[in-house]
Write a structure and sequence with these properties.
Largest sheet: 5 strands, mixed
Mean pLDDT: 75
Number of helices: 7
CATH superfamily of the largest domain: Ribosomal protein S6/Translation elongation factor EF1B
Order of helices and strands: HHHEHEHEHEEH
CATH class of the largest domain: Alpha Beta
Strand content: 15-25%
Structural class: alpha+beta
Distance between the termini: 109 Å
């Protein structure tokens, strides 16, 4: 029983001993106070750094909002979008519309032959140049259909033919025009191109 009582009183005795040492040891008091002061100073610095970080973030947010405000207040963006849409529609109006590149190639040959006949040109050769199928296989939005036309060199008829091309809608582009007066018979060689939008059959006539 006695040993048990000693064990119970031991913490109180230890505490009393530490208290006496604290009260009687000036260095210990100073050291403890210095440690407590350093801990307090470290805590203040941490709080100050956090405050600076939050302040910088708030300033950045305010600056970003100030930069966005003029853009949000501008009213020309809808007008620009409408203008771009009109330009897109105008560009599409210059393209041929067909259900397939093959259909576009056939139409181009038929139109070129009809225009040449109307202008009085004798068609010597009319063929489609390769390339449209490659564009379609690549998934291009538009395919270039090209043709080679060889006619006799009748200058007045050729000018009339070119005038028809100039007024054609959708547009037919003359990539090259070569006059060969020294050949027998004299001839003109043209390479022509159209841009084609391939659309499903139910939409091609829209």
């Amino acid at each position: 029983m006695q040993s048990a009582a000693v064990t119970v009183r031991a913490p109180a005795a230890v505490w009393a001993t530490l208290k006496l040492q604290w009260q009687g040891n000036l260095r210990l008091q100073i050291g403890t106070a210095a440690i407590a002061w350093l801990v307090w100073l470290w805590a203040c610095l941490v709080v100050l750094d956090q405050a600076k970080l939050l302040s910088a973030q708030a300033a950045a947010d305010v600056e970003a909002a100030a930069q966005l405000r003029p853009a949000l207040s501008q009213t020309e963006w809808p007008a620009r979008a409408d203008e771009m849409q009109r330009l897109l529609e105008s560009a599409r109006a210059l393209q041929w519309t067909a259900t397939s590149t093959g259909a576009a190639e056939a139409k181009l040959q038929d139109d070129l032959r009809a225009w040449a006949t109307k202008a009085g040109l004798n068609v010597i050769e009319l063929s489609v140049l390769p390339g449209a199928a490659v564009d379609a296989a690549r998934g291009a939005a538009g395919a270039s259909v090209r043709a080679r036309l060889v006619t006799d060199l009748n200058r007045n008829a050729l000018m009339a033919f070119l005038a028809q091309l100039q007024g054609a809608q959708p547009v037919v582009i003359v990539d090259t025009l070569k006059l060969r007066p020294a050949q027998t018979p004299a001839r003109a060689e043209l390479e022509l191109r159209v841009q084609v939008r391939v659309r499903p059959s139910e939409e091609a006539g829209a």
